[in-house]
Every structure is written in C-alpha cells, then in structure tokens.
Write the structure tokens for this entry.
Amino acid sequence: MLADDAWVPLAEVARPHGVRGEVRLRLYNSDSDLLLGLDEVLLRLKGGEEHEVSVDAARRANDAILMKLHSVDGRDRAEELRGATVCARRGDFPPLDGGEFYACDVEGARVVVDEPDGAAREVGRVRELREYPTTSVLLVDATDGGRPWEVPLVDTVVRRMDLAAGLVTLATMDGVERD
C-alpha cells in the first residue's frame, strides 16, 4: 500500500482551455472527482521535471476537469503543460468501504497461490488493474519470466487481498489466463 505522501497519477493535461490559463484534464478515471477538492497537485512534465503547484480553481466539464493552476496565467503557459501528468497525494484519497481498494494500492503486490500442503507459492507481481465490461482483472508479471497473465477478481480465484502487506492470495490457478 502506498504511503500517504506518495504522488499518484490521476490525469493528463489534454490542452489549454480559454485564454486565462485554464487547462483541460483527461482523467484516467472519468468518474473521479478527487481533483476538484485539492489545494495542491504535482505536475510531472514530459521532460521529467516535477513541480508542486497550488490549484486556484477546478470544475467539471462533462468527462473532464478544467483546472486553473497558480502562476499559469495565459494560454501560452497552459500550452507548455500539454501532456503533463497531474498527480495527487495518496493521503488525499477518500476512505473506502470494506472490500474496496484503489488500483494504485494493489500495483506491485506479490501474488501467491495456496498449495494443497498449506504452503504459499509466489507466482508473480501485480503490474496493473484492468477493467473489462464483465469483470476486473489483475495483470500479473510472472516470476518465472513467462508472459504476463490475467487474474479475474472473482471469489473463486482470489482468496484474499492483504494490501497493507502487499499480498494477493489465489485459491487456484483455474480461470487464470496464461499465454
């Protein structure tokens, strides 16, 4: 699980909006309103530079967010930010209900499968969470160097997730898509 002060990418600057320095953000999760309530964000520029920037204002615009960043006062300066990643601190995320988790908290977790003798065998590490129309899956990098594979997030496959320990335990490898 990420530390509260870790920066998590939430959006990308798509383009300037208007002439007063607002930027239009392309959200990675279009349902998220987290960026609307923040006083500060981290901008990761294409060249690798990072800057913590105060947020003067933010508002919804359909599936995007329009944001006015401190010291970005014109269209030219806003254009320079095109393609920058906008990040929020993990500690700013709202609390979750039981059984829920944020994708950033499961990424990097070890994946183990329970063996019949009670031992746990490590089979990979979570690379990312993917959403499909019928289910969510974890894309896992195999420890044996094989191709990545997908674990469906269903009770018959995933026995438990201990994200504080960075561990996903599988009950079985049945139903797991391996190349």
